[in-house]
Design brief:
Layout (H helix, E strand, L loop, with lengths): L2 H9 L6 H12 L5 H14 L3 H12 L15 E5 L7 H10 L5 E5 L9 H6 L10 H11 L1 E5 L6 H11 L7 H14 L4 E8 L8 H17 L3 E8 L7 E2 L1 H12 L5 H17 L6 H13 L2 H12 L5 H4 L9 E6 L4 E6 L1 H11 L15 E4 L6 E2 L4 E7 L5 H10 E4 L8 E5 L2
Parallel strand pairs: 1-4, 2-3, 4-5
Antiparallel strand pairs: 5-13, 6-9, 7-11, 8-10, 8-12, 9-11
Helix pairs in contact: 1-3, 2-4, 4-9, 4-10, 5-11, 5-12, 5-14, 9-10, 12-13, 16-17
Bound molecules: uracil and calcium ion.
Keywords: Glycosyltransferase, Transferase
Family: Belongs to the thymidine/pyrimidine-nucleoside phosphorylase family.
Function: Catalyzes phosphorolysis of the pyrimidine nucleosides uridine, thymidine and 2'-deoxyuridine with the formation of the corresponding pyrimidine base and ribose-1-phosphate.
């Protein structure tokens, strides 16, 4: 087989076989196919698209390009959850203990922040002592005993994806549905999931800027998951404004605790119920989404989910006292309010740019090497659709520097107040097959 012939085939819109796709991925991973040929191939895929069978074969070839985690010694159906990205997305911190409180195993491997704000691992590490590097045997033992552990992803998962993503980034081929779908699903399959719940976000703060593309991506991932013998469900959700009220690592831990205590933001809680009920159904913990939601509500209201969060923190070496005294985590030196400059209704809070503002404070990384300041971030007091009086605080800035002029300017430029506005729909679609 010659790479040039396969590029030509895809360029002309033909369908590649499993052997051909495996040849491309294996040889690219091994360094036998150069970046210039792979770049041409990616651009051909970008324009010609792929069939579901091709995307499935691409996904499986990428999943098997490195280590594939074997979770078979954990009892039960292991359901993983993945979000395609957002700002202030605190769901995993709430969802992991909430779902585990029903006895459903949550063996989660998470990443660090790729974008502007911290990822789930960074948020968990804002809890003093919390360990995310845990040996495989201990990870499996903890999940068998406690039903939940959230740890860092090992370095060798789907190395083909790592290499391809870097190439896509510099060849304008990131925003291609077959390439995104295979990238995400290969990592979930390599991480050992039996079933997968996807949160496909749409809006300013997301990869998919419009709802149509997000729905298409979600349907594609569900279909290829099924072709790869994994049960998959998806939620298409709004990420035009940040999720919840807190953006920043310690602030989001506090937000997760408040949500588990029953007084968190309504949108965050709704996302957790929507995604959690899919996880529970896939793990066969309930017959349908309605029954699953009722069980999750019960676990939250009884305090069982909060207890599970404490257990998870204790198991991973963290300081459990923060759950009853979350204010201990709020250690930023300065707090500044951002007063509304006029009266009206909030019509826009651009998620992306608010994420950049949080990063400028130190809550995220500009480059991979940057370190994170857990204490800093933003707490929104108003969301889209809320009325606001002139001078009323739109949000609080938690900073460790006195000079937040640039951050304030960026926030003012990306929060709009108008005559009328409505709360956006949070969940655009629920895809179960
Ligand atoms: N997230 C991924 O993991 N891969 C993509 O290609 C896009 C988003
Ligand atoms: Ca949040």
């Amino acid at each position: 087989m010659r790479m040039v012939d396969l590029i030509e085939k895809k360029r002309d819109g033909q369908v590649l076989s499993r052997e051909e796709i495996t040849f491309i991925i294996d040889n690219y991973t091994a360094g036998e196919i150069p970046d210039y040929q792979m770049s041409a191939f990616l651009m051909a895929v970008y324009f010609q698209d792929m069939t579901d069978e091709e995307i499935t074969n691409l996904t499986l070839a990428m999943a098997h390009s490195g280590e594939v985690i074997d979770l078979s010694s954990i009892e039960g159906i292991k359901v993983d959850k993945h979000s395609t990205g957002g700002v202030g997305d605190t769901t995993t911190l709430v969802l992991a203990p909430l779902v585990a409180a029903l006895g459903v195993p949550v063996a989660k491997m998470s990443g660090r922040g790729l974008g502007f704000t911290g990822g789930t691992l960074d948020k968990l590490e804002a809890i003093p002592g919390f360990q995310i590097e845990i040996a495989d045997e201990d990870f499996i033992r903890i999940v068998n005993e406690s039903k939940v552990a959230v740890i860092g992803q090992s370095g060798d998962l789907a190395p083909a994806d790592k290499k391809l993503y870097a190439l896509r980034d510099v060849t304008a081929t990131v925003s291609s549905i077959p390439l995104i779908a295979s990238s995400i699903m290969s990592k979930k399959i390599a991480a050992g999931a039996d079933a997968i719940v996807l949160d496909v976000t749409t809006g300013d703060g997301a990869f998919m800027k419009n709802i149509g593309d997000a729905k298409r991506l979600a349907h594609t991932m569900v279909r290829i998951g099924n072709l790869a013998n994994r049960q998959v469900m998806a939620v298409v959700s709004d990420m035009s404004q940040p999720l919840g009220e807190a953006i920043g690592n310690s602030l989001e831990v506090v937000e997760a605790i408040e949500t588990l205590q029953g007084h968190g933001p309504a949108d965050l809680l709704e996302m957790c119920y929507a995604l959690g009920s899919q996880m529970v159904v896939l793990a066969k913990g309930a017959a349908n989404l309605t029954e699953a939601r009722a069980k999750l509500q019960e676990a939250l209201e009884s305090g069982a989910a909060l207890e599970k969060f404490k257990e998870m923190i204790r198991n991973q070496g963290g300081d459990v006292a923060v759950v009853d005294h979350p204010e201990r985590l709020l250690t930023a030196k300065y707090e500044f309010d951002l007063p509304a400059l006029q009266e009206g209704v909030v019509t826009k809070i651009v998620a992306n740019e608010v994420g950049v503002a949080a990063m400028l404070l130190g809550a995220g990384r500009k480059t991979k090497e940057d370190s994170i300041d857990y204490a800093v971030g933003l707490k929104l007091h108003k969301k889209v659709g809320d009325p606001v009086a002139e001078g009323e605080s739109l949000l609080t800035i938690y900073a460790n520097s006195e000079d937040v002029a640039e951050v304030k300017e960026l926030l003012y430029a990306n929060i709009e107040i108008g005559a009328s506005g409505e709360e956006p729909e949070l969940i655009h679609d629920i895809i179960v097959e």
